[in-house]
Amino acid sequence: MMRYPQPPPPSLTLPAPPDVACDFCSLGRNKATKSCLTCLASYCDEHVEPHYTVPVLQKHELISATMPVGDKVCTEHRKLMDLCCQTDEQLICTECTVDKHKGHTFVSILELKETTKERLEKVRKQVQEKVQQREEELETIIQAEKNVKSSAQTSKADCAKAFSELISSVQNRRSKLEQLIEAQEKSALAQAGELKQRLEKELGELRGRDAQLLRLSSSDDVVYLAQRNSISVAFQDFAPGAGPPRSFTDVTACVTELKAKADILLNETWPKISATVSYVDFSLPPAPNSREEFLRYWRPLTLDDTSNYPNLNLVDSCKMRPSPIPYPPHPNRFTKFPQVLCKEALTERSYWEVEWHARTLSVAVAYADANRTSDESEFGRNDKSWTLECSGDTLKFRHNDVDMKVPGSCSKKIGVFLDYQAGILSFYQVSDQMLQIFEVQTVFTEPLHPGIGLNYEWYDTGVFAQLAILK
C-alpha cells in the first residue's frame, strides 16, 4: 500500500530558559544561580554568599535566577513588577495600578503562581494521561509488528508448501502421461510389427506365385492349357486396422489446452491474491466515538489563498467570507463557485471541524487535480471530490454528480473524520457524544485536500465559514 510522507509533528518539549549571567563577575561572567528582588541583581554561588551571612542581606528575598532580574522591573517606574494585571494579561508594579492600569483587575505574583501552578498541574496530568495512552498504543504496535512477522513467515511457509504440492502434482501427472504415451507407443509398434510380418509373408508368397505364373504362361504344355480355367489366386484380406496408426498430435493438443486453461486460471486468480496481500497492514485503533477520541486525530489546516474563489476573502488562513475586492487570477483558483481547498494533503487518519453561517455550506475533500474552472468544478459534481451539503434543514451527500439525501438536520459546527487507509469519510454533528450525519466508504487513490464551499446572496449579512481552532 502506497504511503505518502507526512511532515514531522511539532515538538512537545518546552525550550529551556536561557542562562542568566552573574552581575558581579568582572571576567568570564559565571552563571547566576540566585536573583535578589531587593537588590534587583543576579548572583553566582560565590557572590550570593553574603546574602546568607550578612544579617541585613538575609532579609532580602532570593529567587532562582531563571531570567534576568531586569526583566522583572517596570521600565517606566523602575520598580519590581509584583502584580499581574488580569485585564491586560501583563506584569506591572504597584505604581502602574494608579495610572494606565487604573480600574483593572489585579492579582499578586503569589496568587498568579498558585493559579499557574494549578493550571500547570492540570496540563501535566493531561500530558501524563496522554503519555500512558501513547505507551499503550506503542505496545500495541510492537505486538502488531511481532504478529505481522509471525503471520508473514507462516503464510510464506504455507504458500511454499501449496506451490510445492502443486508442482509435485503436475510433475506426477506429467510422469504418468509420459508412461502412458510410452506404453501406447510400445503397443502400437507391436501391432505394426505383427502386421508387417504378415504383409511380408504374403508379399513373398505372391511374388513366388507371380514367378510360377510367368513360367506357365510361356509354356506350350498341352496339360497347362487344359487346366488354365482352374488357375486362380487366393488373396488374404486385412482388417482396416492394418493402416498407419493415429499420431499423438491429439494428446499434445489436449495438454496445450490444459496449459492455456491453467494460465487463464492463474491470471484470473492472481489479482485477488495480490490485492489480499496488499491489504495486509497494521491494525489501527478502533474508530473514535467521543469528541475527545476524535480530537486525538485533530489536524491543523490552512486555507490555500491560491485556490479560493476570487470574491472570498481569507482571514488568518482559517476563515473565509464574501468580499467585493477580488483576488488576482491564479491557475489553482476556483472561478465558477465560492469554494476553497486547504494546503494540506491528507493520507492518514485526520479530524477537523468547520463552523459556518450562510445559506448553504459544502464540507468536502478533493484531489489536488480536481477541475477549477468548469461547471463540473463544484464540490461533488465530479469523480475527484466528495461533499456534504448543508442547506437550511436539508442535508445531502454528493459525489460524481450523484446526490443522496441524508436524514437529519444541519449543525452550525460540522466535524469531519477521514480514515484514509480504510477509505472512510464521515461527517458529524459536534458535541461531547458525536452524532454521525453520514459515512461513505470508497477507495482513495490520491492524497485528499479538505475543502469548504459557501452559497449566499450579495445582500446576506454575517456570512462566513471557518476551520475551528483547537484551544
Automatic annotation (TrEMBL):
SMART domains according to UniProt: BBOX, PRY
Coiled-coil intervals, chain numbering: 110-209
InterPro entries linked to this entry: B30.2/SPRY, B30.2/SPRY_sf, ConA-like_dom_sf, E3_ubiq-ligase_TRIM/RNF, PRY, SPRY_dom, TRIM8/14/16/25/29/45/65_CC, Znf_B-box
Gene Ontology terms for molecular function: zinc ion binding
GO CC aspect terms: cytoplasm
Domain B box-type: 69-109
Domain B30.2/SPRY, chain residue ranges per copy: 281-471
Keywords: Coiled coil, Metal-binding, Zinc, Zinc-finger
Protein's name in the database: B30.2/SPRY domain-containing protein
